[in-house]
């Protein structure tokens, strides 16, 4: 089963397409302690109508039991950003990097012309993380790796830029009733990690536009294409939301 859209609603010159957690494609290898939920066409799961949004070509929720992990495998021409929600992720790659990534840390791997890596749960409790792949604007280059420790709320307008993909990632943690404006961009992807938020037009209580009242819970996402400003409003906390600001929705590579 693919990710069923919906409903997508027209919103003041743009479109908001809500994708629910329960409608994601389930993958992984449960007998090896690996669980995956795919937002886009990925690996053996092919959905020609759901290949990418903006630069984003994968947004996977991964869960690894203690001792479980992904064996060494290659990547190329892909920008990979990982956000740990629970537990500890151990990363090793062919550049000699070995790192433990914890909740609140952001991991960035630019695969460029080619890199190999492993990802494991070497801890003693379950590991849950969101891994997002972006298509680069240009292929090639040298691999690059970085970890940002304790990335704070970016509601003040700062964020983590991925220039090779023409994208910026922001983290919002609105308390119940608190508002956080979403960026104005051709493509905005909203992914709820925990808690719940509502999508509202900047008119606040105005619900006649079809946006107010669209509540997103853990694992839910929204794809926003153009239109007038939209805000996140915290409804249940603590909330944590990953927001990508990108160029046009684009077409498959």
TrEMBL record:
Q: Where is the Pirin N-terminal domain?
A: 34-134
Lineage top rank: taxon: Bacteria
| Region span, Disordered | 20-39
Pfam families referenced in this protein's UniProt entry, alphabetically? Pirin
Do you know which InterPro entries this protein is assigned to? Pirin, Pirin_N_dom, RmlC-like_jellyroll, RmlC_Cupin_sf
* Stretches with biased composition (Basic and acidic residues): 20-34
**What family does the database annotate?**
Belongs to the pirin family.
Q: What is this protein called?
A: Pirin domain-containing protein
Query: Organism source for this protein?
Result: Streptomyces clavuligerus
Q: What is the lineage of its organism?
A: Bacteria, Bacillati, Actinomycetota, Actinomycetes, Kitasatosporales
């Amino acid at each position: 089963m693919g990710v069923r859209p919906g409903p997508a609603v027209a919103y003041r010159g743009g479109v908001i397409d809500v994708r629910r957690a329960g409608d994601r494609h389930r993958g992984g290898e449960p007998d090896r302690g690996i669980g995956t939920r795919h937002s886009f066409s990925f690996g053996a799961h092919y959905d020609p109508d759901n290949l990418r949004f903006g630069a984003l070509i994968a947004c996977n929720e991964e869960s690894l039991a203690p001792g479980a992990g992904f064996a060494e495998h290659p990547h190329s021409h892909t920008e990979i950003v990982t956000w740990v929600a629970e537990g500890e992720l151990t990363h090793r790659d062919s550049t000699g990097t070995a790192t433990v990534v914890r909740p609140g840390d952001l991991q960035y791997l630019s695969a460029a012309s080619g890199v190999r890596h492993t990802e494991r749960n070497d801890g003693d409790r379950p590991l849950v993380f969101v891994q997002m792949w972006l298509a680069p604007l240009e292929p090639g280059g040298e691999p690059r790796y970085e970890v940002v420790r304790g990335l704070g709320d970016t509601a003040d307008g700062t964020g983590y830029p991925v220039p090779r993909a023409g994208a910026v990632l922001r983290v919002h943690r609105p308390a119940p009733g608190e508002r956080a404006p979403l960026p104005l961009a051709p493509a905005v992807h909203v992914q709820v990690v925990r808690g719940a938020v509502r999508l509202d037009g900047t008119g606040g209580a105005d619900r006649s536009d079809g946006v107010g009242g669209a509540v997103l819970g853990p694992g839910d996402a929204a794809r926003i294409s153009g239109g007038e400003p939209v805000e996140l409003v915290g409804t249940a906390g603590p909330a944590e939301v990953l927001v990508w600001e990108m160029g046009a929705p684009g077409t498959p590579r």
